[in-house]
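USER: My hope is that you can spare some time for a protein that puzzles me. I am handing you a single protein, as its sequence and its fold in token form. Walk me, if you will, through where the backbone shape changes along the chain. The protein I mean follows directly.
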Amino acid sequence: MIANTELAFQNDEKEKRAAELIIANTELAFQNDEKEKRAAELIIANTELAFQNIEKEKRAAELIIANNELAFQNDEKEKRAIELIIANRELAFQNDEKEKRAAELIIANKELVFQNEEKEKRAAELIIANKELAFQNLEKEERAKELDTANKKLAFKNQERRIQTAELNIANRELLFQNKEKEKRAAELITTNLELKRAEEYQKEYIKGLEEMMFMTSHKVRQPIANILGLSYLLDQTINSPDEHIQFLNHIKQSALMLDSFIKELTLFISHLEQKGKNKKYA
């Protein structure tokens, strides 16, 4: 009975061991499958790492190009600053010319007032002369006996009157010509003022655009570059696992994409600023 009990116990243990062996074989097969999956994932990760290295080299080349472009833009900014100084000098010169034209316009207006007063005097004299002529006609009827002498005097006065009339016509033509010249000068002055106003507006917008561009460059460019440099330093110093390597590369890629996006944004901003300046210049 003890042997049978021991045999039954051993059979139970044997069945348990067989079940455990089946579970162990199943677990081993599962682990082999997981191992194959991990090997496939490692191959994919190595392929991705090689691709990322190529992308990193491309981004490094693009960063060099971006630095060259930034240096070119700095040179252009210095040129624009020099052009702005020249434009300010030109603006000051135009302001001086504007003041001179205003002074000339004031003098011309005074001259026009004086000529109008002279014209009124000549018209008054002509009215008086006409009244005198009527009086002389009455005197001519009364002085019929003095007709010859009166006719000579009248012919002389008529000659003087024709001369005065011719002089008055010349004066009127001269006055009309001067009025037209004053109108032309006034139109030129208005055009100059409008051009000066447009130049001042363009100058203000251009300076504001330069300030915005400098702010964007100093804040948006430095952050991605600092991220890339810091992550590159960490890659050189501490590489513990491929996962950390991939994580650092992802951060570098994200910072490079941010820098590339900002460079495109900055290019569009500069293009928009130049187009706005051209539109205001030729408006």
Summary: The chain is about 95% helix and 0% strand. Residues 238 and 244 are 9 Å apart (CA to CA).
